[in-house]
Amino acid sequence: MGSTAKKAVILVSGGLDSTTVLAMAKKQGYACYTLSFDYGQRHRAELNAAHRVSGAYADVEHKVVSLNLDSIGGSALTDTDIDVPEGETDGIPITYVPARNTVFLSIALGWAEVLGAQDIFIGVNAVDYSGYPDCRPEFIAAFEATANLATKVGVEGERITIHTPLIDMTKGEIINTGLELRVDYSQTVSCYQATDDGLACGRCDSCRLRRQGFLDAGVADPTRYQ
């Protein structure tokens, strides 16, 4: 990567979507600074996966920021007393983590400003929409407006852009895009309740969406299941 490459902060969870976004940003020629969060989630497997995929795509730096979102709880992903649902649910699911993407994007924005990066990538998706309010285009547009009001770089006339390249894609389309970019999806972890070594449950919402995506893409599912 040459020194003239534009810098971008890529939010990387270790899952299928964010790994695809990282590959897309690299293909576009960005110098990729990847950002993950140890926020009190149920398992370490996704952080291990985030480290793996960041290394695989030759990022400039991979940063893990610690947050104690489990201290406020309110989600099956941060409170072990709340079971992860294994059947379909109506409305906003209990796996929604209150304000998570708002918090994550805010820290990404701070790092971007320090780096002199004007581009932030996040793998939110509104087609295979799971009911999360912070995955909608309206939220991203509102956050981008806030980002440009709240920062020194925005006030001085530069523009921060929040990129959501997956926002209108189906899971099958995301997988096919990633495969064209040689993404190894066996290295990713999407499961809400994976084991410490990354084995997926095959039953949660995230596992079901992921499995259907591989079916729709017409390719073998490389996920390692329990």
TrEMBL record:
Zn(2+) binds at residues 191, 201, 204, 207. Keywords: ATP-binding, Ligase, Metal-binding, Nucleotide-binding, Queuosine biosynthesis, Zinc. GO terms for molecular function: ATP binding; ligase activity, forming carbon-nitrogen bonds; zinc ion binding. Its EC number is 6.3.4.20. Binds 1 zinc ion per subunit. ATP binds at residues 12-22. It comes from the Bacteria. Pathway: Purine metabolism; 7-cyano-7-deazaguanine biosynthesis. CDD domains: QueC-like. It is an enzyme of class 6 (ligase). It catalyses: 7-carboxy-7-carbaguanine + NH4(+) + 2 ATP = 7-cyano-7-carbaguanine + 2 AMP + 2 diphosphate + 2 H(+). InterPro entries: QueC, Rossmann-like_a/b/a_fold. HAMAP family: QueC (MF_01633). This is 7-cyano-7-deazaguanine synthase. It comes from Parahalioglobus pacificus.
